[in-house]
Amino acid sequence: MVTGSSSGIGECTAILFASKGYHVTLCGRDSDRLQEAAEKCRQVAASGGHSGQVITVVGDMTDSAVQEKALLDTHQAFGRLDVLVVNHGVLCPIVPFSDISEQDYDRVMDINLKSAFFLIQKAVPYLEQSRGCVVCNSSIMSELPGNPITPYMLSKAAMDHMVRCLALELGPKGIRVNAVNPTFVNTRMDRDLGMNSEQRQSFYVAICQATPLAGVESSSCAEQADVIAFLAGEDARFITGQCLAVDGGISCKGNPLLWLQ
Question: Does the pLDDT at position 137 exceed 80?
Fold first, then answer.
């Protein structure tokens, strides 16, 4: 089950799982885009000779009823839940601390943290049956202090600590909990930063040029999906409570929003 899978990293992750033969539940708010992503999953599954099934659940993951429906539909369709990828999230506009509204703060925290917390809570009975795992999509910004997207950074710092806390509490149930911490990835989500298309293009060119790892561009959704799949897979069976930066080393230089022009 992959939340926020109608585009971006979530869509790439769902497609990758389908290509590996997983049954997949895609969750998102945009019905049309979700159906397009589901069809891509069916096509890659078929081309790989897999019989993997794909279902969709349309709705907002901040809604408890949508969370319950997604989990129940998954269990009814496939008989089990092995992997929960908590990928849905939102950014916030680039504004000074003094201009952040309570509404924007609550929106970011509700989507990025609160909904993730209670979705995982509801998933525990299913994951305990399968000795499954959770992979959260966090951010390198979780450990890089400084404005100008403080609510987002707070939500991801809390997510990282949630991962560590839940790894301890759910480990005795056989449930692993980890996170990927991506660099900036050019997705639809970045519209929330409030930059126009020219500014966004310049920003990603600068990120690419500033990345320490030679010969790479700004990270793709597929690169992030590969690591999510690794953490969900059998090769990572002894890994839990970890937050893995997938950023080409750029976080070693500090918060890019502070030193990039």
Answer: yes
